[in-house]
Design brief:
six-stranded mixed beta sheet; alpha/beta; single chain; 6 helices; 14 strands; Metallo-beta-lactamase, Chain A
């Protein structure tokens, strides 16, 4: 699988294009739609889908422009986060003075659902805690697009509406850390890492630290 990372917007959100052959999807296009269009024009293909790990504004800001450009592309998210796509209070755009409505998803997915477009197949893993409907997308070649769940040396915030620190940590430990250690973690912000590295060194997953935070 080929992966293109585009760091976009004021919050430096990592957006991704995942491609196998002529089948490709966009993950979390938070801003700067023209950069995605440029890549697909260069390849002379169109994206099959726009995948949303969660509904915060910095991860969905370019969805409306891209779905206008590529009307055949599915817009996919978890049903719990679907209302965030059309509500600027829920997607937090109001905090940036914006009125962000990117339209309803065309498809919703839940934990364990398999998504396939031609040669490209991704598994959906539901990990609530940053938002209620946060999902990550796993490819069995050893890549997981983690959104704002697990970072290099950190975890996602859980003080936003719908956040739950215990659910987030439980999901990371039971679902993400269960993936093969060499799995590359592509987070929503910051550098990539591996499951093994975070399982061994991430302080936010240490039991003692979690107890001190009142999460365990």
């Amino acid at each position: 699988m080929d992966i293109v990372r585009l760091t976009v917007g004021d919050l430096e959100t990592n957006a991704f294009i995942a491609r196998v052959g002529n089948d490709a999807v966009i993950i979390d296009p938070g801003a700067e739609a023209e950069r995605f269009v440029h890549t697909f024009n260069k390849w002379e293909i169109e994206p099959a889908a726009i995948l949303i790990t969660h509904g915060h504004a910095d991860h969905i800001g370019a969805v409306a422009e891209l779905r206008d450009r590529y009307p055949k592309a599915e817009v996919v998210c978890h049903p719990e986060d679907a209302p965030m796509l059309t509500n600027p209070e829920l997607n937090l755009a109001v905090h940036f003075g914006a009125d962000l409505n990117v339209g309803n998803p065309t498809r919703t997915v839940d934990n364990g659902d398999t998504l396939t477009w031609g040669e490209l197949t991704l598994e959906t893993i539901h990990i609530p805690g940053h938002t209620r409907g946060h999902v990550v997308f796993y490819h069995d070649s050893g890549h997981v697009f983690a959104g704002d769940t697990l970072f290099a040396g950190g975890i996602g915030r859980f003080d936003f509406p719908g956040g739950d620190g215990r659910a987030l940590v439980d999901g990371i430990r039971s679902k993400l850390l269960a993936l093969p250690g060499e799995t590359k973690v592509h987070p929503g912000h910051g550098p990539s890492t591996t499951i093994r590295e975070e399982g061994q060194t991430n302080p936010y997953l240490d039991a003692g630290f979690l107890r001190s935070m009142g999460i365990l």
